């Protein structure tokens, strides 16, 4: 599945058991949303949505008791992305790789009551912990923006081939690294030509403005190296394409980059911390032993892991942060 790198794949470090009761328990939080919004500041002229809405949007996603701050940080980050894309009320959005809907919630808020989001992901309904894909999507559907969202379980290619619908914008938010190859990404963005007016992308930049985010960059390279030896992968990182590679793919597919910028995530966005944890786990070494048969290549992958450990050690106890995020918009060529 895609986009689960956030809560999405925040499953990496959560240890609380999954429970269907979580979904029903937090539905009651929606009754307070209107009151909460009444005290919010209005977005500026350059914003689609105010960052002050992050606490209320966070309640649209199920969360482990005592950990709502994690969801607030995820919502705030995606508000920053959406504001850089300048989505207008009434926009029709196609979101590819929606995962559990962390970005979907913000997109639905931004497009307003007259807008709509088609959210597409191939993940199985029972995928994920502590909340499954089905639980997360059900929870979001019951939120104040749920009526603006239609969920579709399909790969992007299958979904696009099964409909002749058109949209204003296609969004790929933190999902590109889940694709099996650069060729798969190119096929998808080619299929979007003529179906959407704009293409909006956000993916990790493989750059760390903050020293504490260097381990995240190294962990992605270690994980990507390991996954390249597998015929099939279900990991968060399968094809860690750089911004320049993504732009080249989009250009070949007939898209022109009209805007690009970089976002330095706030400390509360824990994706880097989670990813580094998986690479430093014993499970990673077991995967290397199983997947990499060539001794010299096994040394390369394990040394990449050692580099992550060294970078963490150099932080002298400071918490690992998340690397920079590349945000871009494309128009039809």
Feature tags:
globular, seven-stranded mixed beta sheet, alpha/beta, 13 helices, disordered N terminus, single chain
Description:
The structure is a single chain. With 333 residues, the protein is an alpha/beta fold. The protein is 40% helix and 15% strand. It contains 13 helices and 7 strands. It has helices spanning 21-27, 33-38, 54-58, 68-85, 102-111, 133-141, 156-161, 182-192, 214-227, 243-252, 271-279, 282-291, 295-313, and strands spanning 92-96, 116-121, 149-153, 167-173, 196-204, 255-263, 325-332. The chain has a 7-stranded mixed beta sheet with strand order 3-2-1-4-5-7-6, sandwiched between helices. It starts with 20 loop residues before the first helix and ends with a strand.
Strand-helix topology:
Layout: H1 21-27, H2 33-38, H3 54-58, H4 68-85, E1 92-96, H5 102-111, E2 116-121, H6 133-141, E3 149-153, H7 156-161, E4 167-173, H8 182-192, E5 196-204, H9 214-227, H10 243-252, E6 255-263, H11 271-279, H12 282-291, H13 295-313, E7 325-332
Parallel strand pairs: 1-2, 1-4, 2-3, 4-5
Antiparallel strand pairs: 5-7, 6-7
Summarize the structure.
The protein is α/β, with parallel strands linked by helices. Helix content is 40%, strand content 15%.
* Widest sheet: strand ordering: 3-2-1-4-5-7-6
Low-confidence stretches: 3-42
Rg from Cα: 19 Å
Give the number of DSSP strands. 7
List the helices and strands in order.
HHHHEHEHEHEHEHHEHHHE
Helix content: 40-55%
Identify the overall geometry.
globular
Structural class: alpha/beta
**Distance between the amino and carboxyl termini:** 30 Å
Q: What is the helix tally?
A: 13
Biggest β-sheet, characterized?
7 strands, mixed
- Proportion of beta-strand residues: 5-15%
Average of the residue pLDDT scores: 88
